[in-house]
């Protein structure tokens, strides 16, 4: 890793929780030397390697693409692998790192994402294409691609899900991550179960639960817009029959 | 009573539009009218059926918006989910009682008998 050579001493304040020992999470401080390029994940690795080997956290790619290392830094959900420590220091030269909020903690920064994946599966995030697959490729117009609003770039890190205040009180709510993915499939002209999808997402735990608080947008490390996707789904759910009929017409020209 | 969330959402949006229109009118006319404000002017205005109608619509918009909003926020909580039906009925009863009470209060505004003939 390239550095500019200068180092400084900082404090990393971590929420620790070992279910075998602790009754509730406790905050612990670690002092370490960092350079201007040190990321928060680097700092966690350094603490684990040199100060406390029991520190537990998920990480994998280190390039903000796997979504494993989502954590809460100074009260805001983000990926820690692409965030420099320097950018998050408070006036006392400290950074506070906690696990993703509103999710059960397994150990230290590792949270139980069961509800996250259950809700994801619920929207059937896969494409269901027409039976008569054409010999050539499916053709989508540039407008149809633009309407997807980059939703396919979601890396399923859970930052938006954990930032959502509705999921905090209701784990049956589908959640911004799954609704974003649902919008990707609903807006895909190749998809054939649009009606089923719209019925599912407009139920008791669907799009109408969203209070448009925008926490999901703030939290998304990929700068995606789940709130807009939810708004789009709301509109489509209200004119479901007309939309499904238009979809069938569109598929004839795929 | 369980109304679909789509309908509740639509009711809330429609009542919000009603609130923007009627609440703005209400604020301008009832709280910041040109000139001084006293009860005689209020009672004079409220003698017109049009103003009574506007105030009843404001009441309806506010109640629909409040009741649907409250229902949605309360049923957000997972543990309350099983009581949705009870809460739905409670919301409708609350709306009905408050609307009847408010409407009676609005309709009760009448000019004193001796000034009735002065209204153009």
- Helix share bin of chain A: 25-40%
The greatest interface between two protein chains, and residues involved on each side, is: A-B, 16 and 14 residues
Ends of chain A: how far apart?
48 Å
Number of domains of chain A: 2
Oligomer: heterodimer
Whole-angstrom Rg of chain A: 21 Å
CATH topology of chain B: 3 helical TM bundles of succinate and fumarate reductases
**CATH class division of chain B:** Mainly Alpha
What does this structure look like?
The complex is a heterodimer of chains A (254) and B (120). Chain A is built from ten helices and seven strands. In chain A, strand 3 and strand 4 form a beta hairpin. The model of chain B has no long low-confidence stretch (mean pLDDT 88). Chain B has a single domain, classed as Fumarate reductase/succinate dehydrogenase, transmembrane subunit (3 helical TM bundles of succinate and fumarate reductases, Up-down Bundle), CATH 1.20.1300.10. Chain B starts with a helix and ends in a 13-residue tail after the last helix. Chain B has four helices and no strands. Chain B has 120 residues and is mainly α. Chain B is elongated, with a radius of gyration of 18 Å. At the A-B interface, helix 9 of A face helix 1 and helix 3 of B.
